[in-house]
Amino acid sequence: MKTLTPFILVISFALLVNRTNAQEGLAGAGCSGIVKKYCTDLSKPIPGLLLDSLVGAKSLVYGRPASAAPLFSDVIYARDPNRKCDTLDKNTTYCVNNPQALKYSVYYPTSLNGQKIGCPLPFIVMLHAGSFFECSSIDNGGIVYLCSELAKRGFVVFDVDYRGGVLPDPRKAKNGYHYVSAQQILGEYRAAQDVRGAIRTIIWRQRTNNNGGNFSIDTNRMFIGGTSSGSVIALTTAYTDRQGQIDSALSFPGKALGDLDAAYYEGDTTINFFPKIKGVLDLWGTLNIHKSFYSNPSLYFASNSNIPPLIAFQGGKDSTFNIGTSYDYMSPDSTVGKKTDFNYNKEKSCLPYADSFVLDNNALSEDFVTLGADAFYSILKAKGVPVEEYVDTDMGHGLDDCDTCSDNSYFHSDFGTGAHTKEEVYVYIAGRATTFFATLMNNAAPNLGTTRFVDCVNYRIKCTLTDNNGCTVITQLSDKDLKHTQQKGRPGRID
Question: Does the reported pTM lie above 0.85?
Fold first, then answer.
């Protein structure tokens, strides 16, 4: 196997940046220092790198005025038990036409060792968790912390908000997971529209020098990621090339809500961002695809014009999203036999293009397929697409809530690091993700060896191939190994 030296990798990326400077018409002064850092130790923040941010009242609006987007519609459900962020009548469902409520925050490097960074930087679009609930937002502490950690490693990071509003079906299907309601599918689709619109706006603002801040981005070095429901949208955005892919899988929500690339946002619909996505960060998410791909999910990607590399983290005991490949079930009519007083199979509210949105009503038939981290790892590795997967066998859905865990309540989601807090794990994730992205930017990722880590710490720190991965190789984890989660660098498995 041919090994690329750090010198060659740095020069390679420097050429890429210089070429981008010419394309963007921006000065290259101050570039050399930051470029060299992309192949150094990104497991920790870059020393001497200063950040600024546009957050809170300074966050940037990406939706167009309501008069320019008359078919835009948001929903606030009367039955939503998570509606705690408004003073409206809780017994009334509202349809809201206000695209300018959509915003994103920005975390960006400004200088390195006192020298202003004068060239476009690679950027990451991050999407928060929250199950598409009404009151989830970009101010979520976890996503704010993670965005800051990613920016400390030399990336401009956009924390994008999107429409919420769902009504989860409380019943469980025969696979043990909850049915997926009509309201959930519509919520997911609205979020997908918003994120695609936000990306087009980010690119448009860079091209027109109308970015609203003192940051600049390399529009040809784009990455996307998210946590939980945010990761669902990140995966959908990165791997859904065509309208028909999501429509056919999820009962054609486009007929009710319009095209995925709706014209509700500042960036126009002619901007094709799909080939610009160079990598994806999946934090305990899933991708929904048509049920016909169950036996061979790799066929889903066969006609895609771009299949970006992936770095994924997920718990082996995730009870929200299956870590592998599985069928999922849509809500049947729940008014039959008065099982509930609400029909999760059908929705009529706030649909600009249809009178109603109705799901298949067969409770026993498989409706669509979900792909978790294990499934993505197998598919992409077989296709020769760079992929890294991290599995914590004790972890459920998302990181543990405890700030410090006692011996009787240990931290289940440390990915073998011995971490005791969410923040420590986010630091590890940020280091792993940016190292992987830097490797992609230097075209070295196809030569990576070990790329799957089960309860195992990856110590690779550079986008070269000479680093020690730091894992103890064993064929199977014992019960004793699984119980000792607070041991630093506990034994794990690499593939």
Answer: yes
